[in-house]
Amino acid sequence: MLAVAGLAPAQEPTVPVPDTIRAEGVPPIPRSIAAALNRYQNIRSAAFQGWDDEEGQRAVYITTRFADTAQVHRVASPGGDRRQLTFLPERVLGVSPRPHRGQYLFVMDEGGAENYQLFLQDRAGGEPVRLSDGKSRHESAKWSPAGDLLAWSSNARNGKDMDLHVAAPADPAFRRILKEVSGQWTVSDWSPDGKTLAVEEYISITESYVHLVDAATGAVRTITPKPAEGEPKVAVASPKFSKDGKAVFYATDRGSEFRRLARFDLATGGETILTDIVPWDVEEFALSDDIGLLVAATNEEGLSVLRRFDGRDGEFGTAIEHPKGRVTGLEFRRGSGEFGLSLDSARTSSDVFSVDLTPWRSSDLAMPDRSSPRTYRWTESETGGLDASTFVEPELVRFPSFDGTSIPAFVYRPAGAAGPRPVLISIHGGPESQFRPGFLGRLNYLVNELGIVVIAPNVRGSDGYGKSYLKMDDGFRREDSVKDIGALLDWIATRPDLDKGRVAVSGGSYGGFMSLAVQTTYNDRIRCGIDVVGISNFVTFLENTQGYRRDLRRAEYGDERDPKMREFLERVSPLNHAGNIKTPILVVQGANDPRVPLSESEQLVAAVKKNGVPVWYVVGLNEGHGFAKKPNQDYQQAVEVQFLKTYLLGEGESSK
Length: 656
Description:
It contains eleven helices and 37 strands. It is α+β, with helices and mostly antiparallel strands. It has a domain at 2-42 and 385-649: Alpha/Beta hydrolase fold, catalytic domain (Rossmann fold, 3-Layer(aba) Sandwich). A hairpin with a 5-residue loop joins strand 20 (260-265) and strand 21.
C-alpha cells in the first residue's frame, strides 16, 4: 500500500528518467516537483583556482558551472569580465597556473572514477595536451618556480602506491619516476631554487610525516620523524617552503589537541610553534613573497577565522575581518600582499574574494596606525532568482550522548514555522570530516519550501574538535558514533518545536553507513531513510575499494584480515541487520565509484527488498562517489523530494 501511495497521479506530466540513470522501484516523479525545484537547482558557485599574474596582470582562474559540469574560467578583475576557457563533458577538478608560460594545468577524470589525469592548456585556447597516461590516478601536481618542471604523485607503477614523478613538459623525453614509495605520498611544494620538493606521507588523519626530496636524485630527508615506540602518533600536513628557502612551514598536532602552525628551521632542525595562542585547528595557510607575512585560516566551531601572523616568530595573530563562512584555497599573488580565497556561508554559495594586506607587510607589522586590509569580491554567483536573505542561518546546539560526551550539531529551522516540525538528520561522511555551517545549496528547498528542520550533527570521530574527539570512534568503538544519533533522537523528543514522530535520516559515504546503521538500530523511531554511496558491509567494502585506498581505510575502520576485527566489522555492518529495516529507504549510488563500490548498494538493496518495504534505488551510470553532472543531480533531488514528501511528510500533507 505504501508503494501505491507513492505513485504520481496518472494525468500529471512526469519527470523523464535521464538515459544516464538506472532507477528501480522509483515511481513517476510529478513534473510539478521539478518545476518547484528549478530555481534551487540553478544556484551557482565559484571556486578560486589561482592567480593569473603574468606580465603584471591581476586576474584569477576560477571553476564554475554554466552547463552540466564545472569548467575553467578567467576573471579579469574584481566583479569584471569572466571568460570560459574549457568546454569539456567532464568536470574540471583543479587548476594550477604555470609560471611564466601563459598556460595552466587542469585535472579531470572520466565518469567519476577518480583516475585523475593531468592536462596542459594554453590560456589563449586550443586543444589541451594530456600529460599523464590516461588510465592511472595522478594528483598533487605542482609546478617548479621557473615553470619548467612538473612534479606529482601517481599509482601508475602498481595501482596502489603513489610514487613521486617529475617531468619537463617542453621535453617529452624527460619524464621519470623520481621516487618509488610505499603508501600515499603527495607533493606539497617546491623550494624557491627549484631543487627540492616538500612531500607529505599520509598514513591516516592522525598520522602523517614530511619529507624533503631532491628533485634530481630522489634522495629523501625526513624532517618530521616517526615517534618512538609507545609514543603518540603525530599528524604533520601541508608543508610549504619559506620564500628564502631557509625554513619549512607546516601544520602539526604534535603536543596538542589541535593542529598548530609550525616553522622548521632547515639549518638548525628546530621547530617553532607559531599559533599557540589559537586553540583551534589551522586548516590552511599561505605565505607572501615577503617572508614576514603569513595568513592562516583556523576552524573555530565550524567557521573559518582568518588571522595574519609574523612568519618569523608567530607574533600578532590578529583576526582579519571577512564575511562569516568557510574559507578555502588561500594563495598570495606574486610580489604583493594580496591573497585570494573561496568563501561560502549559510546565505551565499561559494564565491571568490581577495584580501589585500599590503599595509600589513612585514616592515609595517609593528605600526599601530596601519590601515585595515581591503577585501575585493571577484564573483557573485547567481542564486537562481531566489532571495538569499531567506536562506536560514543555522543554530549551533549541543546535546549529551550516552556516555556524557557533548555532541555539537547545526540546526536549520524554517523561518516562522509554527508547531512541531518534521526533521531530517543529515550525517556527514569521512568519517573524519565535519559538517560546516556553510551553504546548504539544494537542501535549502527542504527548509524553505517543505518546512523541514535539517539537523547536521558532528558525531564523535568528526574533525575540528581535537584529536581525542577524532579518535573516539576508531576500531572497536565504531558503534559509539551510532549511539550518538540515538542520543540525538532523545534530544529531538524533548523539543516542542520538533516532531519526534516524523524523523528521517540521510547520509553520504560514511554518512550513508550511519544512515543505514540508524535504520537498522532505531528503525522504530524514524519514518524513512536515505543512503547515498554508503558502506553496507565493512568487510566487503575493504576488500573491494580501490587498492590505493585500502590501507588508508583500514587505519580508520580496522583491518579485516585480523579475525577478531573481521568478526566485529561483520557484526556492526548494516547489511547483516538488513532485516531490521521496516521503513521505506532510498539508495543512491554511482556505478563507477572507486571508494564505495557499486556492490555495496547492490547487496543492500537486494537484502532490504526481502522485507517487503518500499525500496527506491537510483544508480548514476556515468557517476562515481556522488553525482557530479547536473542532469543526474536534478533527477536525484527530485526523487529525494518526492520520497520525503511521501514518507516523511505524508502524501497530501501541506508543505508549510
